[in-house]
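Sequence in, structure out. Go.
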Amino acid sequence: MSLKTETMVLNMGPQHPSTHGVLRLELKIDGELVLDVKPHLGYLHRCFEKHAEAMQYNQVVPYTDRLDYLAAMGNNWGYALAVEKLMGIQVPERVEYIRVIVAELQRIASHQVALGSNAADIGAFTPFLYLFRDREHILSIFEDTCGARMLYNYIWVGGLSHDIHPDFVKKVKEFVSYYKATIIELDNLLSYNKIFIERTANIGVLPLDTAINFGASGPALRGSGIPFDLRRDDPYSIYDRFDFEIPVGKGLQGQVGDCWDRYYVRVREMEQSLRIIEQAIDHIPEGDVQSAIPKRIKPPKGTVYTRIENPRGELGYFIISDGNTNPFRVKVRAPSFVNLEVLGELCKGHLVADVIAILGSIDIVLGEVDR
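Output:
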C-alpha cells in the first residue's frame, strides 16, 4: 500500500530574516521537499528610474545610494561613469585612484555582510559577529572621508564630494594589514567547518550553462567556474594597471557551483580586493578632486550604457539624453534582480531549510531588485 501525499503552497516572507529583505517566496512543497519556488517582488519598490526623470543629473546620485545600499560606492560610480561618458569628461588621476580604493573597500564590506548573514541563516552566529566587527573599520574610514556610514553620495559626476581625510592612507594600510590575518581566522572558523560544509556543499548547484542562460554575474557566475570579471575582461577606470586574480568555484565535494562555492568565491575576492588596494594606496597622485566637476550638467542628445563589477555582479546604467538638464530615461541593470531569477532552478529537489541557504548564497539586496 502506497502513501498518498498532497502538495502544499507555503509563503516564506515577506519579512527580513532569512529572505534578506521584504521578499515573498511562494514555495510549492511535498512534505519538506521543494518542488518549485516563485519569488514575488515589489514590496520595496523605490521608483528610482521614474524619480531620475524628474531630477537633474547631479541630483540623481543620492538616489543611486539607495539601490544596493550595501554597495553604495559602486552605485555612485557606475552612474557617474555613464554621465561622464555621455559628456566626454576625463576625471583627474587622483579621483581615479580614490574611486578604485573606496570601491574595493566597499566590495569587502559588502561581502562581509553577505558571508555573515548567510552563516547566521544556517545557524552560525559567531562568524556574523566577527564579520560585522571587521566591517566597522571600513565604515569608519568612509565616515571620516565623507561623513556617512552607509549612503555616501561620494562619487560625483566629474569627481568626488570630498577629498580623502588626512589619515585616510594610514587607516587603509592598517586595515589591509589587519584583515589579511583575519581572513585566515574566517577560514578556520567557517570555510572548512564540517557543519557549514554539510549545509552548503552540493546544495543549490548552479550549472555553468544555466548560469549563462539566466544572465547571472558576479560571485553567482564565478562560483560556477567562469573567471569572468568586468574589472579585467572589460576594464574601466584604471583597473588595467593592477595585478589581481579572479577566484572561481572549486567544487569542494564534487559539484562546482554550489552554495559553498559561491561563499568561497566571496572570501577569496576579499583577498584580491586587499591586493588591489595595496597596489593603489601608495600611488595616489596629487590634484583637485573637484576640478572636472561641471558647473552645469547638460549632455548632448544621445544614449550611453556603462557597466561595472559591483559586489553582486554586473551593474549597468543605460541613459537616454534629450539634451536637457534632466535625463529622459535611466534604466538600471541590477545584478540582484537578474541573479534572483535562477532561485527556482536552484531550489528544486531540496528541502525547505535549504531554500534559506541557497537564497543567502545568491546574496540579493532588495533595494536594487525592486528599484
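Check: DSSP finds 16 helices and eight strands in the chain. The chain has one domain: 48-370.
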